[in-house]
Amino acid sequence: MAIRYESGSTYFPGYETSDSVIEYLEPDEIARRCLKNRRELVLLDDPTVMAVAKILAERVRKPDAWIRAAVTTLDRFAREVCDGDLASALAAGQKDALTAEMLMQKYLFLHEDLTSVQISSLFFGPKLWWTINGVNVPWSSTYTEGKRSHIANSAKGDFDPKARLLMLSLIGTGLTFEEVVSLKAENAGSLDAEGNLVPNLHSDPLALEFDTEDGKRITFLGEEARAALVYLLPERQMKPGDLLFADKEEIQRLKEIADKRGQSIIETVSDVNVTLCKTVGDFFKIWGIPGSNFFKENGIERQN
Amino acid sequence: MSEIALEALYEAAGSVPDPEIRKTMGELGMIDEIVVEEGGRVLVRYHLTSPLCPSPFAITIGKEMRRRVELVPGVEKCVVELRDHFIATDIAAKVNESEIPKDAPAWL
Q: Has residue B103 been placed in a domain?
């Protein structure tokens, strides 16, 4: 079944961009486009990997980043713990789910020193792959628990944790503010083998399902936002029907905080950006453009 | 020829925002010098935050600077001169290569 696929809509001032292009394509064609000119494209020849990419193409509104994330992390999983042989690993996992768990633990062991955000990213593809190919692996935070957190995950400090959650939930999901604040508790969870949402607030990754003109679509919450959501769960005691990211009466107050903090972050990062640009620029003004001293330093006469 | 107010030229050239940073060229101190020449011709010398500033940014900033300066009363033509950039000459040539209609839409 051909599905709506939008591309080319990214706008960045200073760069010429074409208008957004909307096409209706088969899911496998979308998957191949998302990995075009990438080494990982060959993995789509494996039907078990293509199954993951197709479900993402069908279910995610803008699937490019998620397909790339899933296939590239699965590629790494295959190379690091499956000797590049996904078929054998899957056969063993289908026979005994404990094998899948052991391979995941081995993968975790290899990346013991990483932060929870990095671990969560690395497990995105493998978790989807096992699940969609019929192996029941837990979609829980088993692998990220006890890991170092990124700064954004820190619940310490004076930043209102509810505002922090609202701001983090806007990052990377592709959702608008209105979409974020209309999501309910039952719109978050894991996926089953067919890509259907199974409500579960403790899922990792946490899929979010929302309504679009083309039906229900999903996206995934970033690890920082997921951790911020989990941090607030005991306090909020959510039940089906409750809003996921903020209580209704608090949305306006939180939006004002988010607006103010967002502006402050943009200004601070802009200042950092200017300083970095100038510092790098000053360095190259003194030392020359990268590579410019290569010929001289190596005694090679440059051929023009 | 009416006299061109130098202050208005600095204001026009300096009002162009850096698309990446959300600050103006004036705020960033990137306008080095503006020279009013004969016949309503104006030369703007400027630099960017980095000598490696990507050319699409650099060209767009330069063109928008020309467009804004040419709207200042008395200005017949504005040309720019980019400094401290590794391909400054190429970028300035691209910025200065064609006329900008008075009703051209803003690039930034």
A: no
